[in-house]
């Protein structure tokens, strides 16, 4: 849980290359299996191991519903109490819920066939939706920070402390429900990314409990407790913005996680007839991966045999990297 939180906040390396796989190899190479803790959480980026299964999409849809209901309940209480800490937490929970939005948009466009203009289809819409989500979360963070700072210099009485405490508890229970749900479904479909999302929701629940601490601080005679908690939660939202923007723009610029190339080279070790992997290039189109690979073979092999080896390699790649939807394999003669 702690590692997931650090990755999400951008303070630990993000081993997101595992998002392309989530596949534990049955070749006795345990160092290539991906565990539950190998995934960070990124708003606006769709994980391939979740998007590739109907149950994963189903989990995302219901997570969206639960978090949105939690957010709406908190909005009503913000209007009643005027708590900026609760406002910041509400914005935070809305940011979590909105992760499902690019997923829905992307799948609507991904269903459209490629055309003479859009030869690779419209999967890039997912990246554009991610940029929009990051922008909205950034705006929300700035607004929450502004309100918290303004309230810090101009304290105002917080009304209905008991209701405010209840709102914090509602936020915690909503996030915990999503956490349990995502972790359970993630284990059922063997998706480390969905499990990590569950742990992220659990960490967010502690953010909602911070609202309770702020309310108790106000009740004990420390009116600044509310805006201080609001600033803490605002800092958490800025952490989301930084980590998400880094991932989204990396993909938009055709960047991929270095581990993907390592996985492609490793897979060649399980295909008899491949002497070496000379070059690897890969790129994301939405949550789908495409790759170009140059491999070296014995120059004396018949063309038909070389074709069978290349076909075998392609099948192995798609088994090792479920997100890989298209791969172009070029063969070269190995140096004698």
UniProtKB/TrEMBL annotation:
Membrane-spanning parts: 64-88, 94-110, 131-149, 161-183, 203-222, 228-245
UniProt GO BP: intracellular zinc ion homeostasis
Cation efflux protein transmembrane domain segment(s): 62-250
Span of domain Cation efflux protein cytoplasmic: 261-327
Keyword Hydrolase: no
Gene Ontology terms, MF aspect: cadmium ion transmembrane transporter activity; ferrous iron transmembrane transporter activity; zinc efflux antiporter activity
Location(s), subcellular: Membrane
Gene3D superfamilies for this protein: Cation efflux protein transmembrane domain (1.20.1510.10), Cation efflux protein, cytoplasmic domain (3.30.70.1350)
Pfam families, per the entry: Cation_efflux (PF01545), ZT_dimer (PF16916)
Membrane topology category: Multi-pass membrane protein
InterPro entries: Cation_efflux, Cation_efflux_CTD, Cation_efflux_CTD_sf, Cation_efflux_TM, Cation_efflux_TMD_sf, CDF_Transporter
UniProt keyword list: Membrane, Transmembrane, Transmembrane helix, Transport
Entry superkingdom: Bacteria
Primary residence: membrane
GO cellular component, as recorded: plasma membrane
PANTHER family: MITOCHONDRIAL METAL TRANSPORTER 1-RELATED (PTHR43840:SF15)
NCBIfam families on file: CDF
Family according to the record: Belongs to the cation diffusion facilitator (CDF) transporter (TC 2.A.4) family.
Name of the protein: Uncharacterized protein
């Amino acid at each position: 849980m702690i590692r997931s939180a650090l990755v999400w906040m951008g303070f630990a390396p993000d081993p997101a290359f595992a998002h392309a796989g989530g596949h534990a190899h049955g070749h006795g190479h345990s160092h290539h299996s991906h565990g539950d803790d190998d995934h960070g959480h990124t708003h606006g980026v769709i994980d391939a191991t979740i998007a590739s299964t109907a149950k994963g999409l189903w989990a995302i849809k219901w997570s969206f519903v639960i978090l949105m209901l939690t957010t709406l309940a908190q909005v009503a209480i913000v209007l009643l109490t005027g708590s900026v800490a609760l406002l910041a937490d509400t914005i935070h929970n809305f940011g979590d819920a909105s992760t499902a939005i690019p997923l829905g948009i992307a799948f609507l466009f991904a269903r459209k066939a490629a055309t003479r203009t859009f030869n690779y289809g419209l999967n890039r819409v997912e990246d554009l939706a991610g940029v929009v989500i990051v922008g909205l979360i950034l705006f929300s963070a700035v607004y929450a920070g502004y309100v918290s700072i303004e309230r810090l210099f101009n304290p105002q009485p917080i009304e209905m402390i008991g209701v405010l405490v209840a709102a914090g508890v509602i936020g915690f229970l909503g996030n915990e429900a999503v956490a349990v749900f995502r972790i359970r479904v993630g284990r059922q479909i063997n998706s480390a990314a969905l499990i990590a999302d569950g742990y992220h929701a659990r960490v967010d629940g502690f953010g909602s409990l911070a609202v309770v601490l702020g309310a108790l601080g106000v009740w004990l005679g420390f009116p600044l407790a509310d805006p201080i908690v609001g600033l803490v939660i605002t800092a958490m939202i800025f952490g989301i913005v930084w980590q998400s923007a880094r991932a989204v723009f990396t993909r938009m610029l055709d960047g991929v996680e270095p581990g993907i190339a390592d996985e492609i080279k490793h897979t060649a070790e399980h295909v008899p007839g491949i002497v070496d992997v000379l070059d690897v290039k890969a790129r994301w189109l939405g949550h789908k991966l495409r790759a170009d690979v140059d491999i070296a073979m014995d120059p004396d092999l018949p063309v038909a045999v070389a074709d069978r080896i290349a076909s075998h390699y392609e099948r192995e790649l798609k088994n090792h990297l479920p997100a890989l939807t298209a791969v172009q394999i070029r063969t070269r003669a190995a140096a004698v």
